[in-house]
Amino acid sequence: MTFRARLLTLASIAAVCSDAALAFTAEQAQAGLASYTQSCLACHGADLRTVPTAPLQGNEFVAKWRTRSTNDLLAQLRTTMPPESPGSLGEDGYLAVMAYLLQRNGNAPSDQRLLAASGEPIAAGAATAGPGGAAAPRPTGLLVRGTVKDFVPLTAPMLRNPAPGDWPMIRRDYSASSFSPLDDITAGNVGQLQLAWIWPMRDGGTNQPAPLVYRGTIYLNNPDGVMQAIDARDGSLIWEHRIETAIASRGIALYEDKVIFQSAGRLVALNARTGELEWDVPMQGSRASSSGPLVANGLVLEGMGGCQRYEENK
To answer: How many CA atoms, within 13 angstroms, populate the side-chain half-sphere of residue 64?
Structure first.
């Protein structure tokens, strides 16, 4: 091959790479701008960077999402936005908003529509970082190390009949009674309660936590994908783990030696004693969940959503 031929070959390869585009149309991006203006602008701003912990344009956004798929981004949008009514925009609305975000981060529209089942890798184009330039990589993994003392694995019989001082699942028991049999606090002395301690949760984003209590340890889900174990006696932090997806999960579950929760279409289990990652598995397709998991007889039950439309292929 001659030198000129080599140059032509390299130029052809570069052209193919630069022309590669995610599947979304200009019409979808334009509709996404309208949806964003109506449902997102008040918080995220016209520059998409008003919320410092969740910029939607720039190097931080690109670094976070470029190695993930459109399914992952769609799942996060559906389950968290708008904060007061997640899932309310409908499938076409969320796809349009996602197309608008992709366009604002340097991706060019194509002649193919973005679909819920696309599942393409997000390869963001040249992004505008805005003030401050590139942000430092968001730290993930076990950020604070510690061990829950005298931990005892939580068995199925213990879940069926929780100890009086435990709250091992959302609403405490399988009957969803939300009732504690403890009787130290009564109508007669409730007015005498005093503040024991305060724990500052992670700032930024939205959250609807349902913390669990087991043998004196509080398991607390925070915004920004942070899970914590806290000593209920004095409010001291035992361990803290931040997962890669910066999404706040609503509910969490305890079983044996694991804390189990969902985030952006994935089920994640941490070691309840140490906070170390045990496993991280995707849920089917682009589905996500607006509720937490439940464990029964060793099975993790997770209601999945996604608003997909099913129709017969002809």
So the answer is: 27
